[in-house]
Structure formats: structure tokens, C-alpha cells
Amino acid sequence: MSTWTVLYFISYTLLAAFLIFNLLIGVVITSLEEAHEIESRREDQQRREAAAATDDPTDDRRVELISQLQDLRRTPEAVEHDIKAMDEPAA
Predict the structure, then answer these.
(1) How far is CA 71 from CA 8, 21, 57, in A?
(2) Residue 70: in which H helix or E strand, if any?
(3) Is residue 39 part of a domain?
């Protein structure tokens, strides 16, 4: 075997390992984001149910404000995606 063969094999192996590692990280990050979104929705639902169970109007206002803050925190890309989805004709 020549030096070039060994160099090619090592560089190919490192590149493949780097690619697989990045794919794994992407899958884990996506799963964590989805889990966080599900947990956030569950907590919102629990807040709404708790506010509906009481007669205190400040609870309702608090839930409304939290919902508005969460809407403001959404990324511009998500808002842009929503706008594009609204502009597309229904299939």
C-alpha cells in the first residue's frame, strides 16, 4: 500500500464519521425540540384548564398574556412558514 492510499482511507473514514455524527446530533436536537413543544402545549392546556376552573378574571388574563408571550417568542421563520401555508390553496 502506498502513502496516498492510507491518506485517502483515513480522510474518507474521518469524513464519513463526521457526517454520521452530525446526522445523529441533528436527530437528537430535533427530537428534543419536538418533546419541548409537546411539553409546552401540555402545560398551556393545564394552565387554561386551571384558569377555567376558577372564577378569578386575573387567572384568565394571566393565561392570555402567557399565550401572547409565547406567540411573540416564535421565530420569524415559523411565522413566515405559517403565512406561506395560509397563502397556498387548500388541496
Answers:
(1) 50, 33, 21
(2) helix 57-73
(3) no
Cell of 10: 483515513
47 belongs to a structural domain: no
pTM (2 decimals)?
0.56
Assigned C-alpha cell, 72: 411573540
With respect to residue 36, please indicate whether it lies within any of the assigned structural domains.
no
Residue 9: enclosing H or E segment and its boundaries?
A: helix 3-53
User: What domain range is 7 assigned to?
Assistant: 1-31
> What SS3 state is found at 88?
coil
pLDDT tens digit at each of 91 positions of the chain: 788 999 999 999 999 999 999 999 999 999 999 999 899 889 888 887 887 788 887 877 887 888 787 777 777 778 788 888 888 776 5
